[in-house]
Write a structure and sequence with these properties.
- The structure is a single chain.
- The protein has 236 residues and is α+β, with helices and mostly antiparallel strands.
- The chain has two domains: 26-170, no CATH class; 182-235.
- Helices cover 37% and strands 29% of the residues.
- The strands form two sheets. Strands 6-7-1-8 form a four-stranded antiparallel β-sheet. A four-stranded antiparallel β-sheet has the order 2-3-5-4.
- The longest helix is centred in the last third of the chain and has 20 residues, at 216-235.
- The relative contact order is 0.16.
- It comes from Natronorubrum bangense JCM 10635.
């Protein structure tokens, strides 16, 4: 034990001044996580026609965690009804209305299964988070493979289903943008072929939704993400 202490001290003495860095590459992954008690999962099962994007969350001094979410869709009534029956949250409040979405604030309950804190514990960085029909779609960056494995082990230990959409190495010039998913590529291909980007448009979002067999809110959300990622990778 004494020798180990000496070794640590000598290592610290040789360390160059400056903050510790994890900016030398890493692993970027896009995952689909599912569990019956994940945050808002019961609501999303009852109201699959909406898309939820958490904006931010904060923990009060009382230990209560509040989450603010943007919700996209057309059936807010069914979403709000589902919120009132969701055991993973309580005290849902409508905060604001916009033409394309509504903003809600909810409080987490002790019945909610979480993965956000463990992401940070494993050294990960949350790049993006949104709901999907089969759970939560999350984009994460980890310093190395071992940290990603640690996060995966955490999910396994809590019966959180993990499906990998994308997995790639990052580098010093990485902008943090994950490649387009197959669904995003399919949507952009169909939208381009059918004249969605033409003036006037050759196809509406409603028609795109019918063509692909998804909801209008899913088309709107997928288009915004795909175009945003393309802009980030080509303009930044």
């Amino acid at each position: 034990m004494a020798d180990r202490s000496v070794s640590i001290e000598s290592t610290d003495a040789r360390r160059e001044p400056g903050i510790r860095s994890q900016a030398e590459g890493g692993i970027v992954t896009q995952l689909r996580l599912d569990h019956s008690s994940l945050f808002l999962r019961p609501t999303l099962r009852r109201a699959p026609e909406v898309t939820v994007e958490p904006e931010y969350w904060t923990t009060l001094e009382t230990g209560r965690t509040l989450v603010f979410c943007s919700v996209y869709g057309s059936s807010f009534e069914s979403f709000e009804t589902a919120l009132e029956m969701d055991p993973t949250i309580d005290d849902p409040i409508l905060v604001d209305r916009y033409p394309d979405r509504r903003v809600y604030r909810v409080a987490l309950t002790d019945r909610a299964v979480s993965f956000i804190a463990e992401t940070a514990t494993a050294g990960g960085r949350l790049l993006d988070l949104s709901s999907s029909r089969d759970g939560w779609l999350v984009q994460l960056q980890f310093p190395n493979r071992d940290d990603l494995v640690s996060f995966n082990d955490y999910c396994r230990g809590r019966d959180i289903s993990v499906t990998v959409d994308h997995l790639r190495l990052s580098d010093d010039d990485d902008d943090g943008v994950v490649a387009l998913t197959e669904k995003q590529q399919e949507l952009l291909a169909v939208a381009h072929e059918e004249g969605y980007f033409d003036v006037p448009r050759g196809i509406s979002q409603d028609e795109l939704a019918d063509r692909l067999g998804v909801s209008k809110s899913a088309v709107s959300q997928r288009l915004r993400r795909a175009i945003g990622e393309l802009c980030a990778s080509t303009l930044c």
